[in-house]
Amino acid sequence: MRIIGNDPSFVQQKTCLPTTATGMENLLRKLDLTSLRLFVAVCQEKSMARAAEREFIAPSAISRRIADVEATIGLPLIQRHQRGITVTPVGETVRRYAQTILGTIESLGAELSQFHEGARGSVRIAANLSAIVQFLPEDLAAFGRVFPAVDVELDEQHSNEVLQRVGERAVDLGICNAVAGIEAFEMAPYRADRLAVVLPAGHSLAGRREVPFEALLRETFVGLKGNSALTQMVHQQAVALGGEARVKMRVSSLDALCRMVHAGLGIAIAPEQVGQLYVGALEIAVRPLADPWAARQLWLVFPARDQLSASAAALVNFLSQGQP
Q: Gene3D superfamilies, per this entry (predicted)?
């Protein structure tokens, strides 16, 4: 052994902190959260007795736990003397990591508690038509099975209006596509979809696997009423190609959009999954658009996560985790 510094009571064995895979596994198996919490308390109080009083445990029990941690690491964490304790440099390193670990566990507990606390109450959502038709019914049903006492109020709006209602605090959260102004809110990814062209079954383009949007500019379109994100995108892409999307008729729902195509009143751009719902029931063909912009992301938007109610936070966590 060798003496470090002028205090012969500080003796360090010729042992290194575990750096090998075996040493790391030893740390993971033998270090426990209670021992780390008690060690942090001793570091903060600078006294074994005061830490024991704070943690409602016998000083001898704390001493044994710290000795076990020292044995696992192979280096002393504290120096004991009559006036209290002094934390060694190794101990300071362990304290710093221990506080990070304990803080992470506390954050985990706080986030999980949102699920339990959010088991009762109500959540108000504004969502665009694409989210409501394609994904929300099944997702909200699954959420309801986990949280049967949470009521969900759903308001259908275009993406721009979704942001407006979230900004006015008229709803707890919104679901919409990426439109101007969305960056002002906190966001979490919800679902991805792809746009497709809905064609009459006998249309000349129905034989293709994918259709570039440019090939549609001479067609007559059926569109959605209002200033939806889908309507804006179709118009912008047509202008970017030096043309226009000539809309002959506007309807209020994606269901009506597909029915108008079936009746031969034009073609339509719609989420592919929506169009596929009507293939077979209507004489239409649905072909994905080949353009990169046709791949879209739906977002959960809210003013700030720490301002969500417990039930709203539980719903945001549920909808944003593990979604394809």
A: 3.40.190.290, Winged helix-like DNA-binding domain superfamily/Winged helix DNA-binding domain
